[in-house]
Amino acid sequence: MAAAADYYDRVNPDLLQRIPVTARAVLEVGCGAGALGAAFKAIRPEVVYVGLEQVEAAAKVASGRLDHVLRADAEDPQLALPPLPPLDCLIYGDVLEHLRDPWATLRRHAALLADEGVLLACVPNVQHWSVLANLLHGRWPLADQGLFDRTHLRWFTRDSLRELVAGCGLQLQELAPRVFQPERAEAFVAQLEPALAALGVDRQRLLEGVAPLQYVLRASRCPRPSLHLDCLSLRPQAGMVDVRILQPLRSLTSQPSITARVTAGSIELLKADSTLPRLLIWQRPQLTLPESLAQLRVLLRNGYVIVSEYDDDPDRWPAIAAHQHLVFRGVHAVQVSTEPLAAAIRPHNPELAVFANALDALPKPTSFPAEGGGPLRLFFGALNREADWAPWIGALNRVFAAAPERWQVEVVHDRAFCDALQLPSRRFTPTCDYATYRQLMGSCHIAFLPLADTRFNRCKSDLKAIEAGGHGLAILASPVVYGGSLQDGETGRLFTTDAQLEEILQGWLADPAAAQAMGLRARQSVASSRLQQHQAPEREAWYRSLWERREKLTAQLLERVPELRL
Length: 566
What we know:
Blueprint: H1 5-8, H2 13-16, E1 25-29, H3 35-43, E2 48-52, H4 56-63, E3 68-70, E4 87-93, H5 102-110, E5 113-124, H6 129-136, H7 158-167, E6 171-179, H8 182-199, H9 203-210, E7 212-220, E8 227-232, H10 240-252, E9 258-263, E10 278-283, H11 293-301, E11 305-309, H12 318-322, H13 326-329, E12 333-336, H14 339-345, E13 352-354, E14 376-381, H15 386-389, H16 393-402, E15 407-412, H17 415-420, E16 426-429, H18 434-442, E17 446-449, H19 455-458, H20 463-470, E18 474-477, E19 493-494, H21 498-510, H22 512-529, H23 532-548, H24 550-560
Parallel strand pairs: 1-2, 1-4, 2-3, 4-5, 8-9, 8-10, 10-11, 11-12, 12-13, 14-15, 14-17, 15-16, 17-18, 18-19
Antiparallel strand pairs: 5-7, 6-7
Helix pairs in contact: 8-9, 10-23, 16-21, 20-22, 21-22
């Protein structure tokens, strides 16, 4: 196992993103050390994930990650699995090519799938340009892994993969090429081009066949109806695109019937005569009168249901009211992140859904120092929040002054807060991408989340507490916003006075284990209700409902904005 540890401990991202986030039971044939299953259990902790693995060392590692691991021959007709409901997903990651009879094995295993269960496989492409190049020189080099793996028994092309799926009674829904080094495929085809016409080979079809190193296939017995989502997002900033657009879409498109495109610029719309159900989700659109009417008419003409995605207090932006709230009235529906936002927007458009901010996956919990050990690290990350933190900076500095060697502070975005700290061990990171922000947060032990009681703040979401809780941080927060999601004393601590703030921090410093236990309870709370997978079914159902009701919703839209009549 030591020499081949990396081979058995890889996560194929193209398989991971296709495991339905609603899956209750998953069987992975050839699970290796369980890396893929562990990654999916971070997305859906409650899934029952079963692995089959013949290599003893790999299976031993996997058994510490998955719910059940069997050391068995996947091709055994008498294969005995633990009691399971019908499988929601059956996975073969670079396995089918190692089987003696993948056709018969797949037919047997496919019978274990639920009606809407999904078959996923990643399979090497024997038509790859490197294979053909070697064959033209009379070579078939053997290797320990890759296309020329000496343990491969079967070989497939895109056409034979289609035949394989059809032969086990499933419908192929996707055959996605995994292409690496496309320029070398282009060069190979260019070298063959003088002979292609004589061989009756179409250049473009050949290129499409020789470029993929592997194919990822998705198939099911009873495919769900198709749904397409086009999304116009903001430019990446402070995680807003990740949390409100990218992560929810990744959850939705884990279902094989749902496709999506995201762009921060222009998008090529689907044609009006297409029968594909389609929505346009528009993040914080800046719609003005009369300039935006032409854009909206084009969307309506092309058959889109238009959804405005909004997650900020609309009263903060006077231009919204100045243009008769077109950003809400000029669309079919609106989605927001909080109930206070919904209450503010609903008078302008009653077709509204609340999808609370959530995490796409549960990260590993932070590691706390032992009592009397290393320093506690406090995290603060926000933009333009001086009015929120200024009332508490004196109390923070008094706590730090009492034991400066026991504290460190990690500050993201807010230079003024960092400068106001009277503590040598502080570090500032300017505005950064969301992954870096989360990495810095996850390196800390305490999250400091102050919010003043203003209308603007009351419209905000509790995302920072969800992020901190996911990492297992002890959360120290104002009751504004966070009082609705934290259980004081259980999943976090709420403060309203200097004395409370100082007492809480001093208590955690004296007993880091108590802070860690609170952080782990917060993490469990996030795992049980605030992951993207929890809201994916509701979000999908609402989007499908919007499409089914599009004629009625369009009539209501035109009543609100008669200028949009085509």
